[in-house]
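Dear colleague,

Thank you for sharing your sequence with our group. We've completed the structure prediction you requested, and as agreed, I am returning the results in plain text so they can be pasted directly into your records. Please verify that the sequence below matches your submission; if there's any discrepancy, let me know and we will rerun it promptly.
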Amino acid sequence: MPHTLRITLLWLCTALFLARVMGQILVGVYHTPLLPEWKEWYSGLLPYPWLLLSQLLLLMFMTVVNVDTARRSGRFHVVSTTARGWLKLFAALYAGSMVVRYAYRMVTMPEERWFGGTIPIWFHFVLAAWVWLVGMRSPSSTSEKH
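Please find the predicted C-alpha cells below.
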C-alpha cells in the first residue's frame, strides 16, 4: 500500500473515532434528535467520565502515532518486522472479538437486530483497522511513486 494512502486511512480512522466521541457528547449534552439515542452509543461497561477520558487519551495517542508514521520517524514509527506482525495479530484478534461480541448481542437481544446498540462495536472495528494500518509496512520513500 502506498505510504500516502496508508497515512490517509490512518487519519480517516482517527477522524471517524473523533466523530464517534463527539457524537456521544452531543447526544449526552444536547439530546439531539438527529443522532441515535444514548443507549445506542454506550454499553455501560465503563462509567462515562472514565470512558470519555480514555477516548480522549486514545485520540491524542492516535494523533502522535499518525504524525510519527507520516514522518517515518519518531518513537511510535514502527520499523520492526516483529512489532508489525504483533500489531497485525492484535488487530485481527481485536476485530475477531468484535465479531463474537456482535454475534452474542444478536443472539441475546433479538429485538435489537441488526443494528441496535452496535455503535460501540462498529467503532471497535475502526480502531482495529487503525491498529492494522499502524502495523503495515509502507514502501521506502525512495521506491515510492509520487
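Summary note from our side: The two ends are 13 Å apart (CA to CA).

Kind regards,
the structure core
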